[in-house]
Amino acid sequence: MKRDNWLNLRWCLPGVILIASALLPSGNTERYAGLALAQWTGLLVAVVMLIITVVCLRKMTGNDGRPDSLIREYRRVNGLNVQGAWFNLALLVALILYFIWGKQHQLAFGAFWSGLFIFMGSFCLVTAVASRAWLLLGWAIPFLGYGLFQTLLPASGKVSGIPLGIMFIAVALSFSFIQVCQIRKIESEHGAH
Q1: pLDDT tens digits, 113-122
Q2: Closest CA to 21 of 55, 44, 4, 2
Q3: How confident is the model at residue 87 (pLDDT cuts 50, 70, 90)?
Q4: In whole angstroms, how far apart are CA 78 and each of 34, 51, 97, 185?
Q5: Of 134, 124, 143, nearest to 183 (Cα)?
Q6: Per-residue pLDDT tens for 142-192?
């Protein structure tokens, strides 16, 4: 629904936090309450992502005038029904195998990190096409773009907050764009009847 676009745009917030933190001048030795700025940024982003996830799931799966078919679709995409649970289980097993494989072959951090996002983006892309859950393209396209972009950067052994922040903003914009396309399709189908 149209109001869900504003919920999806909340995914820009972790991106803005990451970009702002990357642009702050700070030394590597400065610590605040025992943690470096990058560690505090990571914790803040994790908390914000958790809050956004909970709020979006509650709003998008709530029975507040949404059509039942839309609620079912959100539940399926977010792993809250049987089909979505199988997707989540398959992704979890695949990620565990990826981490084992990376450890076994002692991949450098940069290669592992890029591969992780290329793998997750590919997984979401295949799942979106196979299950026609087009909203998953909102994860797939930015993940693939970020992973491929990371392969172009020099290996530094750390993650830059700016490209990661841009990826989160791309996720939010992708979700909103896909949602608008789906809404227009539904409106045109109902208008034709």
Answers
A1: 899 999 999 9
A2: 44
A3: confident
A4: 36, 15, 22, 21
A5: 134
A6: 999 999 998 887 766 667 788 889 999 998 899 888 877 877 776 777 665
Integer angstrom CA distances of residue 112 from 24, 49, 69, 83, 94: 27, 23, 39, 29, 14
**DSSP letter string over 7-23?**
HHGGGHHHHHHHHHHHH
Q: Which residues contact 61 (CB under 8 A, 6 or more apart)?
A: 71, 74, 75, 78, 80
Sign (positive/negative) of CA torsion 97, 100, 105, 106? Answer: positive
Please, where are the H alpha helices in the chain? 2-8, 12-23, 37-60, 68-77, 82-104, 109-131, 137-152, 161-192
Please tell me the least confidently modeled range out of 6-10, 66-70, 136-140. 66-70
- 131-135 contact pairs (CB < 8 A, 24+): 131/76, 131/83, 131/87, 133/73, 133/76, 133/77, 134/178, 134/181, 134/182, 135/73, 135/77, 135/175, 135/178, 135/179, 135/182
Give 31's strand partners.
36
Measured CA angle at 137 (ends 91, 190), to 5 deg: 125
Beta strands per DSSP E along the chain = 31-32, 35-36
